Amino acid sequence: MNLKQIRNAQGLSVQKLADRTGLHRRTLQDIEKRDDCLVSNAILLADALGVTMDELCRSKNDEAVE
After folding, report:
1. Residue 31: which residues within 8 A CB-CB, separation 6 or more?
2. FRET partner for 11 with CA separation of 20 to 30 A, picked from 20, 34, 46, 66?
3. pLDDT at 6 over 70
4. Please, which pLDDT band fits residue 3 given cuts at 50, 70 and 90?
């Protein structure tokens, strides 16, 4: 998950992102630490950050399975 990188690139604090999503600050910290979250939370985060789910969730090393 690329949450922390995207958040930092946009100059957002954890608290500002929490305000945008309605998620608790601690929830966001846990997501960044675990590098994992519920799909419903990922949708909120992607919308708040203006990125796709793919950009948020897929690592650069992931390749599509053909």
Report:
1. 1, 3, 37, 41, 45
2. 34
3. yes
4. very high
Cα–Cα dist 41/4, whole Å = 14
C-alpha span between 55 and 26 (Å, rounded):
23
What CA–CA distance (Å, rounded) separates 37 from 31? 6
Half-sphere exposure of 2 (CA within 13 A, CB side): 18
- Spatial distance between the Cα atoms of 18 and 57, rounded to a whole number of angstroms: 18
8 A C-beta contact, residue 12 and residue 4 = no
The amino acid sitting at 19 is D
